[in-house]
Write a structure and sequence with these properties.
A six-stranded antiparallel β-sheet has the order 6-11-7-8-9-10, with helices on one face. Strands 2-1-3-4-5 form a five-stranded parallel β-sheet, with helices on both faces. It is elongated. The longest helix is centred in the middle third of the chain and has 24 residues, at 116-139. It has eight helices and eleven strands. The protein is of the alpha/beta class. It starts with 9 loop residues before the first strand and ends in a 6-residue tail after the last helix.
Length: 248
């Protein structure tokens, strides 16, 4: 039986410059991506909710809604809060780059420093990461065990949130062990040594070596975290963004 052809991935371009939109669209379509383009941030946000692209490429300065606002709205209120988001801009400034990562971007690329093949490689890597995440999500059952480095702490938190799991996520860096407790996909409480609550989570998201184990079980009904889980996840993104090295 012939193998079914995988559906083309969809990419949304948000850029006020028509020439840039056209060049990017033509370049990506040559790689068999389905491309949507918008000249304003507001139009891009509407398209993001309507078409649910697999990745978004956005400039920083746009009319109606700038790129930072677009990224934050996608993360906070869209139908695709975890979609890979790439800033592709002419602004070569470290403070602007940091602001982009704080808004929730996955990449910040400067147009004049980025060759076509480099951009395509970044896109491919981000989409491959999404595929791995979805594969892990599809195979999730009552519990699972894995190695940090193959998947990030933030990815695990998002996975358990999206699958509405209840139970205990144990995370270890080889020396310390922490726990994050979920109730129907919402972070209920957390503990790391003597530390409890949100701060314990914000300490653990930087761990890159060690292991994690999730098991479905009753969770402690004390030290409840009242902050909505989506806000915790977004703060984790911003904290990790601060530590993201500049793109060469």
């Amino acid at each position: 039986m012939p193998e079914l052809k995988k559906a083309a991935r969809k990419i949304l371009i948000a850029d006020a410059d028509e020439t840039t939109r056209t060049i990017l669209k033509e370049s990506l379509e040559k790689e068999d991506y389905v491309v949507f383009a918008a000249g304003t941030g507001a139009m891009a946000f509407d398209l993001a909710n309507k078409e649910k692209p697999d990745l978004i490429i956005s400039d920083v300065f746009m009319p109606e809604m700038n790129g930072f606002e677009l990224c934050q709205r996608v993360r906070d209120t869209s139908a695709i809060p975890m979609v890979p988001f790439v800033f592709f801009t002419s602004i070569d400034d470290m403070l602007t780059e940091i602001r982009g990562f704080r808004a929730g971007a996955n990449e910040y690329l400067v147009k004049r420093h980025t060759k076509r093949q480099d951009l395509l490689l970044r896109i491919e890597n981000l989409l491959s990461h999404v595929d791995a995440f979805e594969k892990e999500k599809a195979t999730l059952r009552d519990g699972f065990l894995g190695k940090l480095g193959d998947v990030s702490v933030l990815d695990i938190l998002q996975l358990l949130t999206n699958t509405a799991k209840t139970g205990n996520l144990l995370i270890s860096d080889g020396t310390l062990e922490g726990n994050v407790f979920f109730v129907k996909g919402q972070i209920f409480n957390a503990q790391l040594g003597t530390g409890k609550g949100e701060d314990a989570i914000y300490d653990m998201i930087y761990w890159e070596d060690g292991f994690f184990r999730f098991s479905q079980e009753d969770v402690p009904r004390h030290n409840m975290i009242t902050t909505p889980t989506n806000k915790i996840i977004n703060k984790c993104r911003r904290l990790l963004g601060k530590e993201t090295p500049p793109v060469a």
